[in-house]
Design goal:
52% of the residues lie in helices and 7% in strands. By secondary structure, it is mainly α. It folds into 2 domains: 204 residues, Rossmann fold; 90 residues, Tyrosyl-Transfer RNA Synthetase. The strands form 2 sheets. The protein has a 3-stranded parallel sheet with strand order 1-2-3, sandwiched between helices. It has a two-stranded parallel sheet with strand order 4-5. The protein is globular, with a radius of gyration of 21 Å. Bound molecules: adenosine-5'-tetraphosphate. Adenosine-5'-tetraphosphate binds next to strand 1 and helix 1.
Length: 347
């Protein structure tokens, strides 16, 4: 029932159209190698092939307690992290969610076609609420609807994300399909784009938990801004499993996680890394992993330092990105309001 579109345009006589990509990242805390390997790096690698919209989702960050200073500082820092990682504003629209009011307006309209029971099933809500459902914000509960609005506003075909977001993209499809069924074909049904490797980088402290910005333990993550010594220390301290062979497996979740990080940064497969470390033991492997991460983050950190020296650059690029996003969002909302019969659509 949804409007699934191909990459080659809407019909045989129309010119080919690049697939549309939308992805968002919250300006909440220190960005880590999980965000980088699971999301940002894929955005950068694919940006020439797609028509991309990348969004700093500041309104989502309000779903957990935050401060004015923390939020505004993090927005510019995240913009610089994305630019330093290779997001190119010539190829991609990069903007801040709250600069385009249509996101919240569409969120409200989509709330009206979202079922309470669907939201209650979201595992990310359960994880983040940590059993304190009565005390967390209502924003945390409706977070997936705002995310659906972000995606649907731009007629998105693909959403490159880590594995943790898969359920939210499925909900987005359901909400879009329900809206289309009630009001007529309006939204494209997006598909998640989850890479098999790097989709879920786990905590260095506890391989049963995903690496997360909001983890209270500083040793759980490697931040993109960590110094070489901090990176070496964190990887040296990362938990490993019993035994000494550098081999991945379900009985070795901690080592498997470190092997995936190595493979992704070295552009190798996990078996290739295992072969390289056959008979060498955990110590040698972890020491080399630390050097590899230091080496791969160094150019990003250098560019980041240059960008942070002149905050006006990111501020200007974000303002330009918001202008471009607003044009698309405004056109889509005109169509949506007309379908629903609000905002003047009374003819
Ligand atoms: N551990 C991870 N492994 C792979 N991908 C990950 N992502 C996040 N953690 C991992 C992906 O990064 C993108 C941006 O995520 P986000 O900031 O919007 O929110 P999140 O998924 O909630 O990330 P965090 O780090 O856990 O942040 P907090 O603690 O603030 O909630 C997404 O594509 C996500 O899949």
């Amino acid at each position: 029932m949804g409007a699934e579109r191909g990459a080659t345009g809407e019909g045989p006589h129309l010119p080919a159209r690049r697939k549309r990509v939308f992805s968002g990242i919250q300006p909440s805390g220190s960005f880590h190698i999980g965000n980088y390997l699971g999301a940002i790096r894929n955005w950068v690698d694919q940006q020439a092939a797609y028509d991309n919209v990348f969004c700093i989702v500041d309104l989502h960050a309000l779903s957990l307690p935050t401060t004015r200073e923390g939020l505004s500082g993090n927005i510019l820092h995240l913009a610089n992290v994305l630019l330093a990682s290779g997001i190119d504003p010539e190829q991609s629209i990069l903007f801040v969610q709250s600069d385009v009011r249509e996101h919240t307006e569409l969120c409200w309209l989509l709330n009206s076609v979202t079922q309470f029971g669907d939201l209650r099933r979201m595992t990310q809500f359960k994880d983040k609420a940590g059993g304190k459902d009565e005390q967390v914000s209502a924003a945390l509960f409706v977070y997936p609807v705002l995310q659906a609005a972000d995606i649907l506003l731009y007629d998105t075909d693909l959403v490159p994300v880590g594995e943790d977001q898969k359920q939210h993209i499925e909900l987005t499809r359901d909400v879009a399909a329900r809206f289309n069924a009630r009001y007529g074909e309006t939204f494209v049904l997006p598909a998640p784009d989850i890479k098999p490797q790097g989709a879920r980088i786990m905590s260095l402290d506890d391989p049963t938990k995903k690496m997360s910005k909001s983890d209270p333990s500083a040793n759980a993550t490697v931040a993109l801004t960590d110094t070489p010594d901090t990176i070496r220390k964190k990887i040296r301290r990362a938990v490993t499993d019993s035994g000494s062979d550098v081999i991945a497996g379900p009985d070795k979740p901690a080592l498997t996680n470190l092997l995936s990080i190595f493979a992704l940064f070295a552009d190798l497969t996990v078996p290739e890394v295992e072969t390289r470390y056959a008979g060498k033991g955990y110590g040698a492997f972890k020491a080399d992993l630390a050097e590899l991460v230091v080496e791969r983050l160094a150019p990003i950190q250098e560019r980041l330092a240059e960008l942070e020296a002149d905050p006006a650059v990111a501020a200007r690029l974000l303002a330009e990105g918001a202008e471009r996003a607003r044009l698309r969002a405004a056109a889509k909302m005109d169509e949506v309001r007309d379908r629903v019969g609000v905002g003047g659509g009374r003819s």
